[in-house]
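In this supplementary section we document a worked example of the pipeline. Step one takes a protein sequence of length 193 as its only input; no multiple sequence alignment statistics are reported here. Step two produces a three-dimensional model, which step three serialises into structure tokens for compact storage. The input and output of this example are shown verbatim.
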Amino acid sequence: MSANEQILVEKSQNGDTRAFEQLIKMHEQKIYNLLLNMTGNKAVSEDFLQETFLNAWQKIKSFRGNSEFSTWLYRIAVNAVLMKRRKRKTVRTVSMDAPIITEKGEIKRDFADDWSKSPTATSENTELKNKLNKAIELLPEKYKTVLVLRDVENMSNEEVQKILKISLPSVKSRLHRARLFLRGKLSGYFRGH
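The serialised model returned by step three reads:
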């Protein structure tokens, strides 16, 4: 954690709302992108973003600095989504087609890079993306969350471990099982092509 961020955290812990607003601005986009990747819905992600920062404000005094402040925020965001999903199983997971929202605009998500610009290849890539989306939606929640954090958000195993508060072997095991599941679901597609 940078010295500036540490000062902002300490001020926030003493009730300084302006300092907390600065912390929000520092992390807002990353947290929103994570939530969008987990829900696939902009409006739902915005609701979770507000809930995340409200929860963070309410719990700011409990932050001890044992992890990065961003890791603590990611944990709050992931827990908000997971708790809501446990209550209602209606929140979508990962939309591979949803663009990534950045300060400079939208970036088109393309997990299955175009191997060619031909219409046939483009059609096949769209079909593959759809199959991948469907396969990810079938993953059990604990595997889906690790897959999104690790493979979509490009976090390290250690970061995922801290966010989910599980052991490093559990992160690796869940990621491995998620990838095997996806491979199994997609193997028929590749055999046919």
